[in-house]
Amino acid sequence: MPPSPCALCKVNRALILRPKDHSKLCRPCFLSTFEAEIHHTITSSRLFERGERIAIGASGGKDSTVLASVLKTLNERYDYGVELILLSIDEGIRGYRDDSLETVKRNAQQYGMPLEILGYDELYGWTMDQVVEQVGKRGNCTYCGVFRRQALDRGAAKLGVKHVVTGHNADDVAETVLMNLLRGDLPRLSRTTSIVTSTPSLSADGAGKNTNIKRSKPLKYTYEKEIVLYAHHKNLDYFSTECIYSPEAFRGSARALIKNLERVRPSAILDVVRSGEDMAKLVPGSDEGCGGVCASAVPAGEEEEGGCGSANGRSSGGEMATMEDQLSQNEAAKANGLEVEITSSKIKKSEAPLPLTVGKSRKVPKASQPRKEPKKQVMGQCKKCGYLSSQEICKACVLLEGLNKNRPKNHIEVGYEQEKDVNGATEAMKQLDVGAG
């Protein structure tokens, strides 16, 4: 059987079967198509403004590494006129984050971007190793997710940056949409499906003035498998080890279902994302009009797409790691003159679809009973740290209070403290060493 030609250029030999639509492309056409689609997402959504300083949330994994590489390429090719900075959060996980940060440092040199690293120990007085030692592995991702979201905002404020981009991809968004549907939590769809959200917080100078830290997801419509393909064919340097504290969570069930749907229907991922966007507009009291600002107060520990940003953590059973190994084997086959195609795993014939079951009928509410409208959250600021919260005390401060109560007194503790200046303005987001010496 002769090799298949590229579906676009009709000249080169097709080496890649795109997971998104199963079109057969050569390497140059795939890379250019991949970059063109992200450029279209950026321009159609008007994510960037000329002269803007943008911080890339860099973990060293495939998503953030590809994001940094693509943004550098597109910024130079299309003259966005933006300044790119790498912002990394050190959770304090030995054997995982310390190794991935070495990858980020190499990327900073390779891409010629400045790098800022901010640690949990510096901000909260706790590393994740210490948190897990005290609370155990069960539920530790809640602490990490809440702390990490605030850490990114605080890092951006420290750099004087008002825009943070993250590597959340289409798979991550589809998983989150499905999780909210399975839990019947439709009001959160506005934030989880929005490509841009804002986080009002205090300015870095402590003057008590509100500043909006904009967050965006340029890879929102990009498949995870295509990110792996792009990283492979561009020979990008990234870290591919899963977080050692990543437990089995409800997101894993949604992830497995999304992957199974993708095998049957490749467009299923984008279909779920688009459906989530449409449903978000129909939910009473949704924050579609405010760009997700109000909904951004949702606790990030469970809802932040992709969680800790690990390379393999978002794929059930190490599927992306298996794909990376297959790519390496394909390179060897290519050297021997064999045709190479990247395909999705085939569904076993023995796996028959589950039969439909009819559950118990539910009581239909009487027409006389008025429907209760969902209560809209009123956004404010945490009294302790000044971070956006619908409660008097934000979730991060609540978690820190519980940790510090059980901490030995001979340890150095870092926390938040409220101080008022002569004008009565609240100075928040400070770290205070109360145990040194």
Write structural notes for this entry.
By secondary structure, this protein is an alpha/beta fold. Residues 201-210, 288-307, 309-317, 339-354 and 410-437 have low confidence and may be disordered. The chain has a domain at 16-289 and 298-320: HUPs (Rossmann fold). It has 14 helices and 14 strands. The strands form 5 sheets. A 6-stranded mixed beta sheet has the order 5-4-3-6-8-7, sandwiched between helices. Strands 1-2 form a two-stranded antiparallel sheet. Strands 9-10 form a two-stranded antiparallel ribbon. It has helices spanning 27-44, 62-78, 97-111, 120-124, 128-135, 140-159, 170-182, 189-193, 224-233, 250-264, 268-282, 300-303, 319-335, 395-405, and strands spanning 16-17, 24-25, 53-57, 83-90, 115-119, 163-165, 196-202, 210-216, 380-381, 388-389, 414-415, 419-420, 426-427, 432-433. The radius of gyration is 23 Å and the shape is globular. 40% of the residues lie in helices and 12% in strands. Helix 7 packs across helix 10.
